[in-house]
Amino acid sequence: MSRVQYLLLLPVLLFASFWICKMKFLDAAALLPVLPAFASPAGLERPNVCVVKASGGNDSAPAIIDAFQRCGHNSGENRGKVIFGNETYHVKSIMNTTGLSNVDIELHGTLLWDTNIPYWLNHSLPVGYQNQSSAWLFGGENIRWDGFGVGTLDGNGQVWYDFINGTNNYPGRPHQITIAGTKDSIFDSIRFVQSQMWTMTIIHSQNILLEGIYVNSTDTKQQVGFDFSSLNTDGADTVYADNITFRGWTVDNGDDSISTKANSTNILIEDCDFYTGLGIAIGSIGQYDGVFEIVENVTARNITINNMRYGAYFKTWTGVSSGYPPNGGGGGLGYAANVTLEDFVLKNASGILAVTQCTSYNSASGNCDTSKFHIRDLTSRNWTGTTTSGVMADVQCSAASPCTGVVIDEMDGIVTTTNSTVPEIYLCDSVIDPTGFNCTGEPWEENPRR
User: Which PANTHER family did the record assign (predicted)?
Assistant: First the structure.
């Protein structure tokens, strides 16, 4: 071939080579549910960055697990990243992505859980407390997860609310996500909707900030009430957790907004708007016979309560053990101490503040004076707003371990919606030397949740 012929043929060869390479790349991309990102100017591959590709209507769980396996374990000097695009990821099987390190997560789309109830009942993963289980175990060290205000976990919860139909703690019903064995991490601007059960459990974890979180798990078919079908849709529960901050949360659900359970210490809940459910809960606790557990140094402040059962309430099991967790137990030991609830605004709350040490299930009743779990140094201060109740506080403590250091003060900014007067009824049992109030009578019922 002459030099002239070669020069004339060269553009054709280059064009053909370009399209062959491009078609190979496209074919490979179509086969990979997780794509490595190419970020450097030189076009070099970054193996610790994964973009998860949705699997259409198929199960995206294997691709999600693979992404965290490949890009979720990194050294401090070389952080990894897992990116979910603006797509819907159908989750049809359980996921365990624990033991992560130094990874950033971007969630721009929606993780949508499948409605195959028999599968989840038989495969959900043990949480390690109260015989509860979860659809997703997640955790590690130095994690930063950003949902940008749009990234969503959708549990398709209505099918569960219909299925359990008011059954408390249905066996195998999964929590949406369990943050387990996690420390020094941030979860920011993520949306959680229609959770299957508890939205999230934070267990065996420390030094976590959860900020700008939106939770909405509401029954679309039935009116709110204690025995309605979206029972157990807690916004978040802490267990064996230390130094956990909930800041700027919005929760609309059918149960506890945020609950601090066994061995929760140094918990801060601030600048939150809560709707519809039962309120901030301390407990339940004291469920395991003879086991010593604590809740200590809990602060909730700048909280707005909208059409809820309470602003906050405490609940411990009786001192008589009956049945097994999650729907049985009692006889636990320990204490709840240094709990401060301040700067609450109530909007049409049906109750204000409650303490019960009568918790039991299996149709058991009585034994309200048997719990040896001690509640002390509880302060409620500077609450304002409106309520339908004339009872400021219903404090049913146990005679076996009376409450001490209870302070209820600066609450005269609360008025009833019936006659615009400040509630003046303080119902008390086994409260020693109350500060800021006088007890006016005994509690009317064993369990103020009902």
Answer: PTHR31736, PUTATIVE (AFU_ORTHOLOGUE AFUA_7G06410)-RELATED
